[in-house]
Amino acid sequence: MERVRVGQRVRLPAATWNRVLDGTETAERLAKSADAGRFRPSYAGMVLVRNSSGAPVNRLGVLGIDGVEFARADNPDEFDAGGFVLTGGTPDADLHAGRFVVTAEPIADGAVGHAYAVGLCAAKVHIVAAGDAWADVADADATQLTSGPAGSARIVYADAGTGSQWAVVQLAASGLPPVPDPAKDYILAHDTAAGLCWIETTDECPP
Predict the structure, then answer these.
(1) What stretches in the chain show pLDDT beneath 50?
(2) Minimal CA–CA distance to 124: which of 95, 151, 103?
(3) Nearest-angstrom CA–CA distance, 198 and 99
(4) End-to-end CA, the chain
(5) pLDDT tens-digit readout, 153-198
(6) How many helices and strands (H and E) does the chain possess?
């Protein structure tokens, strides 16, 4: 095949034209695959989330999960391949306890970005009391989690002190003590108004 000038008439055999079309279609498929790979999460603990909170969220911010942007029926292949997109809103302590992500990058309002949903990640945590080992969403706060005696995120490490501290948390962890101390007695405590329950030792209970 020889190159031609603009406006020059070209007469191509059918086989040659079909090869051109085949090459174009292949290039388009590769481009689509590259785009899909670029926007899909890079590992199993990361997801895509649309920021629908009404404000930009910084890297390592918090979004509550309100649902998904499209159902599996709309795009089964993309959904099954992990290309589904969660809908993220301003954290609500009642609605989003245990249902949140920590953003892996800044996400503008209305934009889609990557976020951590499972596993270890850095996050800012409001440490309420020294020794708190768990964290969950802070009401109406997209900048940090809040600590407590129970929660869906285990605090693996936190800077010393109370108040807003940088920490390493394990998302989607159990809210029970990892290894009960056989020398202590435990009871199931609960806060009906907050909808929480947790395990604590009898010496932590008020008289």
Answers:
(1) 30, 33-38, 175-177, 179, 205-207
(2) 103
(3) 18
(4) 92
(5) 999 999 999 999 999 999 988 644 454 555 556 666 666 665 566 6
(6) 2, 12
Helix residue ranges per DSSP H, the chain: 14-39, 76-78
Measured between alpha carbons, how far is 151 from 45 in angstroms, rounded to an integer?
18
Cα–Cα distance between 76 and 48 in angstroms, integer? 16
Collapsed DSSP state (helix, strand, coil) of residue 11: coil
Distance CA 76, CA 20 (A): 31
Q: What angle do CA 138, 140, 145 make, to 5 degrees?
A: 25
Decide: helix, strand or coil at residue 190: strand
In angstroms, the CA 27 to CA 117 distance is 34
Residue entry with tokens 């159902």: 71
Distance CA 145, CA 169 (A): 10
- Which tokens sit at 102? 């920590």
Which DSSP letter does residue 138 get?
A: P
Task: Please answer whether residues 138 and 91 qualify as being in contact, where contact means their C-beta atoms are separated by less than 8 angstroms.
Answer: yes
Q: Which of these, 68, 67, 136, lies nearest to 102 by C-alpha position?
A: 136
Sign of CA dihedral 132, 137, 138, 142: positive
Write the DSSP string, 41-54: -SSTTEEEEEE-SS
Cα dihedral 84→87→88→94 (10° resolution): -120
Which amino acid belongs to residue 85? V
The model carries a pTM of 0.67
Distance between CA 64 and CA 84 in Å, rounded?
16
